Amino acid sequence: MTMSLMMIRRAMLIAFIAALIAVPWVVPALINKFWVSVIAEIMIWSLFAASVNLLFGYVGLLSFGQALYFGFGMYGVAIGISTFGLSFWPAFGLGIVASVAIALVAGIFAVRLTWHYFAIITVVFSLIFYFFAVSVKSVTGGDDGINFTLPPTFSFGGYTASFSNETFQYFFIFAAVAFCFFLMHRVIQSPLGKAFVAIRDNDTRAELIGLNVYQLRLIAFVMSGFLAGVSGALFAFFGRYASASYMFYHVSGEAVVWAIVGGAGTLLGPVVGTTLFIVIREVVSTHWEHHSLIVGVMAILVVILAPTGLVGLWNEWLARWSAREKVPATRTSLQSEP
To answer: Which are the contacts of 101, defined by CB distance < 8 A and separation ≥ 6?
Structure first.
């Protein structure tokens, strides 16, 4: 990667982060305060789509069961607060631990399989626990869900910070999601991430060079469960609510579409895909009830015209631009030589 290309990407990332930081003040002044909550929701769902991307984009495993870990994150928070009377942080931790634990159990069986067999078994696990959650309505509330009152997030003396303050809620979600994406970036750039990519490209060769394919797939599976669990816990705090309907496999399917359209195998692809479709949903649904048709058509067009996703297409364009810039510079340096 050339220096100019790195500088462009770094400048764009800084501008993107600065724009997100300015949202609580700029968006209400330019559009409507309602969109601050929409952007917070987009960040949560982007993290959920990132859990799909980690498996599919970097390990080559297409999961339709991520809603299971999202739901466990939600219910860990909701049951922890409403049933056990936990405060914010223990409930948050319970949601994440529950998601990681169920991801470990499901992953032990699922990662033995690949291709459509893997996709099918992830759907099966999701359906099993969905119907279980619906059947034990006394505990989970079923499709009606569980409502709960938010405990304070921080409390120092007379000062209390909680999600009831929309600005605090936004920045807490922003910080949590940004931290998870940073962790994912570090993993991708590490030897572990390179091993994931090696398995994605050719698992047989990866095994021949000494990589434990089963173990590495299981690690990736649990990590994706962690990301989905964090997003589920954040969504529970965001909505003060948990429902079994979020454990159904169609929720996983939406995340798969977001990740693929945005750009599977790219760090910010899920962010772009999630943003595109949620903004379409919010804008079009107020005027037309069949907005899902537009989403479907756009997804089909992107998959056909940009198989690497929108971010992949952008990266390819930047690479071509950088190559064109490099060629004239090389010719000029050659002409200047005596």
So the answer is: none
With CA atoms as reference, report the closest residue to 123 among 68, 67, 64, 62.
Answer: 64
Question: How far is 93 from 87, CA to CA, in rounded Å?
Answer: 10
pLDDT tens sequence across 213-250: 999 999 999 999 999 999 999 999 998 999 998 998 88
Which DSSP string do the residues of 111-137 spell out, in sequence order?
TT--HHHHHHHHHHHHHHHHHHHHH-H
Rounded to two decimals, what is the model's pTM?
Answer: 0.91
Q: In this model, does residue 336 exceed pLDDT 50?
A: no
Task: Report d(CA 153, CA 161) in Å as an integer.
Answer: 6
Strands (E), the chain: 146-147, 154-156, 159-161, 241-242
Give the CATH architecture of domain 3-335. Orthogonal Bundle (1.10)
pLDDT digits (tens, 9 = 90+) for 94-125: 999 999 999 999 999 999 988 888 999 999 99
Bridge partners of 159?
156
pLDDT at residue 93 is higher than 70: yes
Apex CA 218: angle with CA 216 and CA 220, to 5°?
70
Number of CB atoms found within 10 A of residue 31's CB? 11
